[in-house]
Amino acid sequence: MDFSIAWQKINQMGRDFMALLPNLLFGLVVFVVFIFIARGVKALVERLVQNRGQSQSLKLLLSRLSYVAALLLGILVTVTIMVPSFTPASLISALGVGGVAIGFAFKDIFQNFLAGVLLLVTEPFRIDDQIKYKDFEGTVETIQTRATTIRTYDGRRVVIPNAELFINAVTVNTAYDKRRLQYDIGIGYGDDIDKARQLIMEAMKGVEGVLTDPAPEALVVDLAGSSVNIRARWWINPPRRADIMGAQDRVLEAIKNTLTAHGIDLPFPTQQILWHDQTEATDGDRKSQREGWPAGKGDVPQSRAEAQQEQQAATNAAAPPEQAEKAAG
């Protein structure tokens, strides 16, 4: 059995490897150098971003992007050294249609990534801000390149894709230092509106956490069915959820106690139920069919049955004898 051909190929492979070995070793050295360069670029970007007072998430994103970019450059240089026939142009041509297919397959991922970068750069909200998006409301935990996570007030985590937050309306509850709260209080129609208004404002001013500038307000907003509604408005700082609930609890308690102590009525809607006891025999007879009301005095209207009987008797009396006997029979 002739092994000469196989031996020649093995020798050729060995010589090719020995010829390529210096390039491999030099490429590995270059790649290690680029790893240190990438780390240095990452540290430099972190210092530059930190000096400009950017958010922690943006600093982390830019440092990672710079590290990955430097590392990719190192990989391209290393492959070019190890394989002299390889060029970046050949890589781009090799991707070709495959790159387009990959782009369509990962369209949503790229969209969320770009939206995440724009959110971190423009900063419509930051970590620890309290936001509301559709039915979700809570505190922002992280802003990543793919999605943003918020912690709801009842202790649940919601992961929202960045593209949703970028193209839709988002309410940032903690965007400003102050926030105005309001609540409608109903007083009786017989009460003095000016007096009730003054009592409400005094009650709000005496509550801890309510700002004096802007000052609290009490405005008449509705003449309702059973009350005159006065809207109490006050400002708090900071505007976080816990502070809002605490301030509202104290304000409403103070307003209720103050109004009650000064004899201001706090009416509530009432309903009156009328029992309808109508039957065919008593329909219209106000002495027996009262519908929840007392019977009237004196003459009352006839019932339907009585009126129908009288009408039938009058019709029979006016008819010829034959028809009257037929109707009676």
UniProtKB/TrEMBL annotation:
Domain Mechanosensitive ion channel MscS C-terminal: 183-265
Its membrane topology: Multi-pass membrane protein
Residue ranges occupied by any Mechanosensitive ion channel MscS domain in the UniProt entry: 108-170
Ranges where the record places region Disordered: 279-329
Compartments in which it is found: Cell membrane
Annotated transmembrane regions: 20-41, 61-83, 89-106
Bias type Basic and acidic residues, positions: 279-290
Assigned keywords, A-Z: Cell membrane, Membrane, Transmembrane, Transmembrane helix
Pfam family, one: MS_channel_1st_1
Composition bias, Low complexity: 305-322
SUPFAM superfamilies: Mechanosensitive channel protein MscS (YggB), C-terminal domain, Mechanosensitive channel protein MscS (YggB), transmembrane region, Sm-like ribonucleoproteins
Stated family: Belongs to the MscS (TC 1.A.23) family.
Protein name: Small-conductance mechanosensitive channel
Organism of this sequence: Hymenobacter artigasi
